[in-house]
Amino acid sequence: DTAVSQTPKYLVTQMGNDKSIKCEQNLGHDTMYWYKQDSKKFLKIMFSYNNKELIINETVPNRFSPKSPDKAHLNLHINSLELGDSAVYFCASSRLAGALGTDTQYFGPGTRLTVL
Amino acid sequence: AQSVAQPEDQVNVAEGNPLTVKCTYSVSGNPYLFWYVQYPNRGLQFLLKYITGDNLVKGSYGFEAEFNKSQTSFHLKKPSALVSDSALYFCAVRTSKDSNYQLIWGAGTKLIIKP
To answer: Any alpha helices (H) in chain A, and if so which ranges?
Structure first.
C-alpha cells in the first residue's frame, strides 16, 4: 500500500493554464507538506499544513495555493502557470508539525510539471 | 541563519569499499538530523535520524550516521558500498527552537558506486 501518493505523475501544460496536483496519505498523519525540487535538485518547502495552521513559505507566489478537503488530502493548485514553475513537486506528511520537531516526513513519488 | 552543508556535490566509491557522505549543520538549539535518499525519478526515502541519545544511529539498507556535536556534523556511512546505493542523498536538520519545525535541507550529494 502506498503511504503517500500523488497524481498525476507527469503533467505537461501550456503557460497561463491553471492546474492541480493531488496528494493523499494513508498514514494517519496530521501534517502535510508541499516541496518543489528544481532542475539542480534543490528542495524548497512551499507549504506545511495541518487542520489548524497553514504555514506558507513567503517566497512562494500567491499563484500557488494548497487546499485540504480533509486531513488525508492536500492538493496544490497553481494558477497562471509560468515557465519557471517547471519542476518536480513532492508531497510529504508527518504525524505532527510540532511534537518537538522529531517526526519523520514521508514523501510521495513526485509530480514532474513541465510548462511549455 | 540556520543552514545545512553537504560539501561534496558528488562522491565516487568502488563497490565493496566503505563510503562516507558528509553533512555539517549550523543551528541554534538542539538539532534533529535526518538523512534521506532519492533514487532516480523517485521520491525521497527516509534513511535514519538523530534526535537524542547514542551518537551512532543505524538506519535502513545498512547505513549509519554519527552525530558529532563538537564538529556539528552528521556524516552518513556504510561499511561496504553496493552499486544499488548509487543515488542522491540529502541531509536535513530541524531545531527545537524553530516553532515552525520546518526541515532545512542540504543541497544533496550524488553518490556513485562503481563496480
So the answer is: none
